[in-house]
Amino acid sequence: MPIPPTSISEEKNLDQALDGTFPASDPVSATTHLTATPTESILAAAERSSQHPGTVTIYRVVGADQMEKPFAAGRLEAARWTSENTASVYASLSAGDALLEFLAHCEGEPPRNAYLARAQIPRERITVMHAYPSTWCEQPYRREVQQVGDDWARSHRSLAAQVPSALCADACNIILNPGHVDAPLIQGIEVRPIRIDDRLRRIASH
Questions:
Q1: Domain limits, the chain
Q2: Does the predicted TM-score (pTM) go above 0.90?
Q3: Reduced to 3 states, what is the DSSP secondary structure of residue 21?
Q4: Chain centre to alpha carbon of residue 39
Q5: Consecutive sets of 10 residues in the chain, 206 residues long: mean pLDDT of each?
Q6: CA–CA gap between residue 97 and residue 187 (Å, rounded)
C-alpha cells in the first residue's frame, strides 16, 4: 500500500525529530511529453541548511545489511529513474523524505533494525534534471523515464542528479553515481539506529 502524502508541517516535524538523532542509452522519445520543474530553489535551501558551506546534506534509511556502506551501490535492480543495468544509489534531501522512501519500498513489515545515514556532497557536483517525461511518477516504472537516468549515469557528467520525489510533492531525491570519479567526495558519513514508529509500521505493512 503506498504511503499517504504528509503535510508540510508533519514532514518538518518528522525531519527535526529524525535529524536530532545525530550529533551536532537511447535518447528519450521525441513523442514523449516532457515536464520541466524548477528545483534549484530546493537545492539552494538544502545548501543553506548544511553545516558545511558549499555542500548539501543527503540522507538514506537502510537495513543492517547496508549500514557499513550506506551510500555504496548494492545489487543492481530497476528503479524509477534507472534501469536494472545501471548502478545507482537513491538518497533524499531530508531525513523525513528518506524514511518515506524506505517505508514505501519495504516488502512487508519494515525491519526492526534500521539505520539513518547522512553525508555531505558538494552542491556543484549535482546536476538538476530540468526536463523529463510526464510519466515520471507513474507505476509501473516507465522505460522512457529510466532512460533519463541511464543516459545521465553513462555520461559521467556529475556525481549526483536531483530528481523529483513521487511520494511527496515539492520534495526531491538525489541519485548518486557510485562509479563516478568524484565518489570519494561523499564525505562526513554518519550512521545512527532509527526507531520506526509503530503507526508507520502499520501503514507500511498493509
A1: 8-205
A2: no
A3: coil
A4: 14
A5: 44 51 40 46 82 92 94 89 96 95 87 94 95 94 97 97 91 95 97 91 75
A6: 20
